[in-house]
Amino acid sequence: MGHRDGHGFVQRDDGEADIYLPPNEMRAVLHKDRVKARIVRTDRRGRPEGRVVEIIERPEQPIIGRLLHEGGIWLVAPEDKRYGQDVLIPKGATGAAKTGQVVVVQLTEPPALFGQPVGRVTEVLGEIDDPGMEIEIAVRKYGVPHEFSEACLAEAKALPDKVRPADKRNRVDLTDVPLVTIDGEDARDFDDAVYCEPTKIGRGRSAKNGWRLLVAIADVSAYVKTGSPIDIDAYDRATSVYFPRRVIPMLPEKLSNGLCSLNPEVERLCMVCDMVVTGAGEIEAYQFYPAVMFSHARFTYTEVAAILANTRGPEAMRRQERVQDLLNLHDVYRALLSQREKRGAVDFETTETQIVCDDAGRIEKIVPRIRNDAHRLIEEAMLAANVCSADFIAQGKHPGLYRVHEGPTPEKKEILRNYLKAMAVGMSISDEPHPSEFQAIAQATKERPDAQQIHTMLLRSMQQAIYTPINSGHFGLAYEAYTHFTSPIRRYPDLLVHRVIKAILGNTKYQLPVLPTPGEAHAKLAKRLASRVKAPVARQAKPAAPHSKEVQAWEAAGLHCSANERRADEASRDVEAWLKCKYMREHLGEEYGGVVTAVTTFGIFVTLDAMYVEGLVHITELGGEYFKFDEARQELRGERTGIRYAIGSRVRVQVSRVDLDGRKIDFRLVREGEELAARAMKDKGVAPPSGVPAKASDKKRQSRSKARDARPTSPIQALTSAVKKAAGKMKNKRSNKGPRG
């Protein structure tokens, strides 16, 4: 892994600590090379430093950058600064590219100890300020497949435009059931529909009230056959990638927005999870079956929330025939929610943001996504269907992919315990924590002024979820088994789950196809993921014997899907960071209020209230004193003033610098930071620095203000004053002694 400052790291396959490579060791290697390295020493903090012994593998990864012409030499400056060297371009290898344009370069000569890499231009992307350029860069930078193969497009083109009579055979006819879709205003594909009605559970006088909940999911597996060209492309992508104003879909548009999208008032093939839910929110029974449905309405979250809030309002009047169905959905949601609370599932409220762009692709504003009861209603219905699908696969004893989320690692548990103790929370977690312990801490601290800081630390202590055939449960949701069934249009694991469920229903077995080996970018991510997230699963599951070839194939598929999910997230974050940097360049010098969202040894990260943009206040911008990082409290503390900056601290900052290439925004503290320092120093009995206005409420303080201001308060002021005083004394001595003889 290269670093923009010239050094690098070897990320070990065994998951042990990264090995530091000094700049001279990075001359002959590139970011993403696979190498063999030897540890030659450890630094003062015990971190290993090494040297490269051998380059094992050099990926065919294109480099994206801007073409420059300097001193008669053509070169490309990589957009990804982890590639620490410019690429030389021979005179005849620039193609049609012009100076300043963004290009894709293929290396023809690797770097050497005393020579730069050489390459040729293979593609011209355009000017750096062209609309959508940030997405074109990201898909190539992260190796996101963005063009379907000709075979895939040809197969998609040959598919029918609508459901044919032959397609309905051996399916339950649900066209008379008023299933509806509920999505965001900007949604283009609809892969889930819901319906709920009251029902009696049991017979006679002992019968209890409950609900019948139907979750219908687009039947992608009916059209995407195992090993077909569409399937191969879908597996390669593994997920749709979402950018502001653009989506790179997993499936061709004819499927994702047509045949497999549950559009209103058209027949569609679907897989149904038909559940009976008790009044206490428990799933009493369920069944899966293929069906044909007819969406009776396309709702938005905003519309449903308005109807639930006022059943006599204008939105409800327009949808009178569906109001009772929505009320039934809301009732079953509340029952499911009560069961969620009973399980002790983790449920932290976090703020998600949405970037609103204009037609030119520039950010107009960044707004929070407001979650309402309609969002939560759909979420609980999807969770219920996913739990049933995991149980169905487990009961059928068929291999498949579970969505596994493990509890915190021993290291993270220790950090969290120390933090909770340092913050005097009065609660902690056990050696084998249950999610209810996390939820209890969140509930007990929600009224504290530092609640956001505590909740952030609780979230950071957890691991990332992965796809694996070895079921270890879902820690955050407090489920013994969980999988993904509800989004086969945009997630390949869901498509595999559908195929497994169909195999169990048909008393057959689904065999994973022999799919092409994933590309280099996929393999790198998979290897990284294998070392970091696969090992804990294996440790916890403790298999008695090596896994069969069948299970190993499912493990490989899960690893591939997990790695590509990370890749999609990284590409999306990269584009968002680019857009935010371009947006903040127009606000240089402006001041905003914000909250500290992360604390490190080198500074604090602040998220602006109005913009929802994060930037760094470097430790050198915090004041003229030494700051010590307290790992237990996750805060920086000034040694002289005692001022503390922790997650959740409120500050006022000025936008001081924007680095578009590095996707970094720098802030500096303004006057409010000085006022915080003054208050901290007062608490310690130390005089505040000059220039901080004293409050007029205390006359005695006002009378002493001049004396305090005259007193040196910073190391530089103290040194200057001491030098002046010493010089004055020397002058007086000399004048008293007279001329030296």
Number of helical regions: 17
Low-confidence stretches: 516-526, 528-544, 689-720, 729-741
- Domain count: 4
Structural class: alpha+beta
Report how far apart the termini are. 70 Å
Strand order of the largest sheet: 7-6-5-8-9
The biggest beta sheet reads:
5 strands, antiparallel
Q: What is the residue-mean pLDDT, rounded to a whole number?
A: 85
Q: What proportion of the residues form beta strands (DSSP E)? A: 25-35%
Shape: globular
Number of beta strands: 30
Written account of the structure:
The protein is α+β, with helices and mostly antiparallel strands and 741 residues long. The chain has four domains: 8-57, no CATH class; 63-128, OB fold (Dihydrolipoamide Acetyltransferase, E2P); 150-406 and 463-571, no CATH class; 587-698, Nucleic acid-binding proteins (OB fold (Dihydrolipoamide Acetyltransferase, E2P), Beta Barrel). The protein is 34% helix and 25% strand. It contains 17 helices and 30 strands. The strands form ten sheets. Strands 7-6-5-8-9 form a five-stranded antiparallel sheet, with helices on one face. The longest helix has 37 residues, at 549-585. Mean pLDDT is 85; it is low at 516-526, 528-544, 689-720 and 729-741.
